[in-house]
Amino acid sequence: KINIFWFRRDLRLDDNAGLCHALDSGLKVLPVFIFDTGILDHLEDRSDKRVDYIHQALENISKELQTHNSGLKTYRGNPLDIFKRLVKEFEIDTVFCNRDYEPQAIKRDREVADLLEKNNVKFSDFKDQVIFEKNDILKSDQSPYTVFTPYSKKWKEHLKTIEIYETDFSNFAAIKSYEDILKLEDIGFKKTEIKFTEPSLDKKIIDSYQQYRDFPAMDHTTHLGIALRFGTVSVRKCVKFALEHSETWLNELIWREFFMQILFHFPYIVNHCFKKKYEEIPWRNNEDEFKAWCEGKTGYPIVDAGMRELNETGFMHNRVRMITASFLTKHLLIDWRWGEAYFAGKLLDYDLSANNGNWQWAAGCGCDAAPYFRIFNPEEQTKKFDKDWKYIRKWLPGNYDHKPLVEHKYARERALETYKRALT
Ligand code: FAD
């Protein structure tokens, strides 16, 4: 008999909770990854950098495992079908993995667990993606928090020592005739220019994070989003580092968990406003204006620079994400779901809970959102955070003479009117 460890969004061999539990289980462990066609078939771009990133992370895992006489088995297909094959091919005792809190993932895991049970195989999942999950942090009346500040206070109170898991490499199953992992082409994707680098916690950035994080030209944030998304870095190690170096950065990691638990407790937010009343806002949804926003042609330099950074790199600085999202929902009165979907297609660090939570925050319809009447003024934001136009010039080189799509004062009044009418 063997055990299987199923990698998903935890693509690392160090400090991996589910993997270490599997390795300590007493049976040899066969590591498996499934390129899930249910997810991949929905990606529009065959040169999606995120798929290439995952692939490179898996290649590294596979190479490392080979040095321990083992390897990584990769498959392409629907996980249910793959497990139907695996239970025939191997005598499996338990399938180990780490928990995922997205509604689709929860459904998938339930189906896989049922299938395994029918075949007398156990399914054992662990907390790894977060420090606190599900009902770990609740209000005194046992309901989930929907406001960040008290949530983060309780989160910090609950935090005790952080356990780091040691990987026992001697317990991986020996694979005799080792085949390489599937190639990108085998799963219908192409190589891109993205280069996987081992994520590292940069002391220089994190020590002065609080001072500089809001100035997009300084690019003074960690860019660990993609590593946290796919688990190539351990959140436990990040939190340990944050505790030693920066409370402000720790708070960002708590925001991540806050939105994850919101998605877990309120899965309807995937398609709906957290505050239901906001469904009544009559969005204008002008398609030409949406296109101009996507292409960075709104005539507002800071908005356009941000969208071009996103289109060219798959990243956008947080401050500018807030400005562009506010502009779309308030100035143009375009449904936040359109913007959310656009970001989802482009962001390398795209994460359903964080993207949805932040978009709803920007639109005013989310939990703990700023009141709707606080509308970002792009010019004021530029004065505060990019006064020398360093960031703007970087992304809008050369002549820039777009006429503003809409005048700020007018757009502001229109947004206030529209929101007020819908909400009262
Ligand atoms: P750092 O500033 O170094 O922060 C460290 C980590 O903390 C981030 O990598 C991320 O995991 C987490 N974090 C930081 N801020 C937030 C936040 N506000 N909410 C949740 N987690 C946070 N973040 C995503 O990870 N995925 C998304 O799809 C995403 N979409 C966003 C959409 C909008 C409209 C806005 C306003 C913000 C969005 N964010 C998203 C949050 C934030 O902008 C990014 O996490 C951050 O810019 C990533 O850069 P970094 O890795 O350098 O982060």
TrEMBL record:
Gene3D superfamilies noted in UniProt: 1.25.40.80, DNA Cyclobutane Dipyrimidine Photolyase, subunit A, domain 3, HUPs
Cofactor: FAD; (6R)-5,10-methylene-5,6,7,8-tetrahydrofolate
Family: Belongs to the DNA photolyase family.
Signal peptide: none
PROSITE patterns listed in its UniProt record: DNA_PHOTOLYASES_1_1, DNA_PHOTOLYASES_1_2, PHR_CRY_ALPHA_BETA
Pfam families recorded: DNA_photolyase, FAD_binding_7
Keywords carried by this UniProt record: Chromophore, FAD, Flavoprotein
UniProt KW Amino-acid biosynthesis keyword: no
Domain Photolyase/cryptochrome alpha/beta, chain residue ranges per copy: 1-131
Repeat found in the keyword field: no
Designated name of the protein: DNA photolyase family protein
Superkingdom of the organism of origin: Bacteria
Entries under InterPro entries matching the protein: Crypto/Photolyase_FAD-like_sf, Crypto/Photolyase_N_sf, Cryptochr/Photolyase_FAD-bd, Cryptochrome/DNA_photolyase_1, DNA_photolyase_1_CS_C, DNA_photolyase_N, Rossmann-like_a/b/a_fold
Coiled-coil regions, chain positions: none
